[in-house]
Amino acid sequence: MLCLTSFSRAETIRAIDVEGNRRVETPTIMSYIEVKVGEDVTEARVEEILKNLFATGLFADVVVELRGETLVIKVVENKIINRIAFEGNDRLKDEVLTAEIGLRPREVYTPAKVQQAAQKIRDMYRLSGRYGAKVVPKIIEREQSRVDLIFEITEGTPTRINKIIFVGNDHFSDARLESVIMTKETRWYRFFSSDDTYDPDRLSYDKELLRKYYHKQGYADFKVESVVAELDPDSQEFYITYTLSEGKRYQFGKIKVTNNLPGLQIEDCDSLISIECGEWFDSREIERTIDRLNMVVGEKGFAFVDIEPKLHRNPQEQTVDVEFIVKEGRHVYINRINIVGNDRTDDDVIRREIRLAEGDPYNSVKLKRSEQRLEYLDFFKKVEIKREETSAPDKIDLSVEVEDKPTGSLQFSAGYSTTEGPIGSVTMNERNLMGKGYDLYASAVVSKRSMDFHTGFSNPYFLGRPLIAGLDLFHSSRKYNTKGQDQTGYRVIKTGGTATFGYDLYEYLGQSWSYSLQRDIINDVSRFSSPYLQAQRGTWFVSEAGHALFFDKRDSNIDPTEGYYASVADDLAGLGGDVKYFKNALRAGTYIPIDEEHKWVIAIKASAGAMSGLGKVTRVADRYELGGDNLRGFADAGIGPRDSITGDGLGGLYYYKGTVELAIPLGLPPELGIRGTMFTDMGSVWHSGDKVRAPNLILSNNQKLRASAGIGATWRSPFGPIGVSLARPFQRIKGVDRTEQFRVNFGTTF
């Protein structure tokens, strides 16, 4: 820049000229200099002109000079970015990099901005474990002071973790602590995981995981002294060293609740304390107690509550006294609810799951329920609702932070099942269609014994209200095995559709109504089959209305580990058509975690059903059957009424069934997705209700209990779920019931 000495005194300007500008219009530059013809210009005014023009970022150089009584502004314009491109980026897509670097076409080009963008790209690759990634920005000059910006990227290989070392862990083995942290050593079976790549953010999270683990084991003074990552220059692999200070192990000492909240009975709080003096100190028990206190106090109508735990360590006795102080908290209301990270899902889909609204009193119970409902959607990798302070002391903002995950799938699978034989399937499903929460699916499954085609659509917020509306169309053909032999039984071909309408009555209680209309063709009945089956050959039209009530307080509807559910369902056929019956079924279950990590979980499930033919003979195809997947250890239709002459299973009008199952961690890495089970199944189905044969010619027409026990394993493989079970009946009717000890399923739903 140039400032002439002629500006040592004020000069009156008679004209202003601008030179060198190609893209930026002269009037635009004149608006920046804020000097008009006829005004006096001093050296101070010139410095102000230079400052204003450089502040725009539009110019690489500016010269101000005086020619007679004319003020001349000479500018050299900064180049403009014409196009941004990336080369060599296979792991990170163009749109991901573009969103991160902060540069756009038509912006002013400066070398500093480009170097910052290149560093951001390197940082992104480091976060994905590629510390050897190189980024070289290339500039291609274009006409009219434009440039093309090309980032040449060499991604390199992932920087793996060769060894994890713990120092100072006297009470827990390295293997035990490795199972606690997220960072893992490189192993051959971790080809689907990135946890064995170096990530400094993950190391910080590991420190918190270790702290929580030691605190729940009683080590209240535990801390991570340091985490050091060393890169081997030869192997380009990291060695991670955690230096720990375990401290002493503490027990709980005195536990008490101090109630400073007017109107709240102290007895309401004391009953919620499950911590006992002498138990090992566990920070999670303190958190759980606070959660229980918050929930119960909130349910009693106290909106503004603060529960403060005060811990007093007694190093000599190695005990920790805990006092829970219940007091009136700051009166806080919701100012704004901001939603962040939903690149694909509409805001409305998220807002309708939040149990709080702007202007409501803050309620931690409703906040937790909101997070749970968002997780139930299974649309997001992560869900977190954060409180943010505002300028007003009585108001807070809620920041709902989510990260979208893929919700669509197109799966091709092939496999083998002991009941179906060879199986092939194609399934398409989009659970969040257009980001609006719509569910669209279509499937085709073909096996040796069956063929099934389904397509359906559901809207969880029909007419802008919390009403679930869905339509399902289907066509299926299935060979039913009534003797445990493929050459016997009958085939049912079903074609029709079902319309469903549902809604929530309360937070955990829902109700649904449905109507289905279908045509059934029963054929392929062997001439040696039971007269019950022979009599039901032909074409039938079924018109059925259904109703269901369901209560669900499980912690997850996908992989529950805690909570319970119950449902009742009624189905009435006979609103037209050829078939009449009324069915009623009850189902309930509970999940009980045994350990703190919820890896060992007991599931207790029970169901029962009854049906009436409403004056007509019920079809075998409509009756209840037990065996196969729903009563392991027995073949399909393996128990219940059976024709004593032909051996065909006839199904029953009544059934009950129970299962006790223990989920077992097998000690394998969690990322393999393999889990074991021990189980016992029990149940019975009885009363065929027919009079084609004399009652004494129907075997097992009573409610005698059958039971089995066994073990199994499931693997959520990249090719679809695989399940294996080995079960042995220990309560059966010999010579009548059909058993099946080994069962395998591949590419089917469990």
How does this structure look, described?
This protein has 750 residues and is an alpha+beta fold. It contains 11 helices and 37 strands. The strands form 9 sheets. Strands 18-19-20-21-22-23-24-25-26-27-28-31-32-34-35-37 form a 16-stranded antiparallel sheet, with no helix packed on it. Strands 2-5-4 form a 3-stranded mixed sheet, with helices on one face. The radius of gyration is 36 Å and the shape is globular. The chain starts with 10 loop residues before the first strand and ends with a strand.
Short descriptors:
single chain; 750 residues; alpha+beta; Ubiquitin-like (UB roll); 6 domains; 16-stranded antiparallel β-sheet; three-stranded mixed β-sheet; 11 helices; 15% helix; 45% strand; globular
CATH architecture classification name of the largest domain: Beta Barrel
Q: What is the CATH T-level topology of the largest domain?
A: Porin
Number of helices: 11
Distance between termini? 75 Å
How is the biggest beta sheet arranged?
A: 16 strands, antiparallel
pLDDT under 50 segments (min length 5)?
1-6
Strand content: 35-45%
Classification by helices and strands: alpha+beta
The shape, in one word, is globular
Biggest sheet strand order reads: 18-19-20-21-22-23-24-25-26-27-28-31-32-34-35-37
Oligomer: single chain
Mean pLDDT: 84
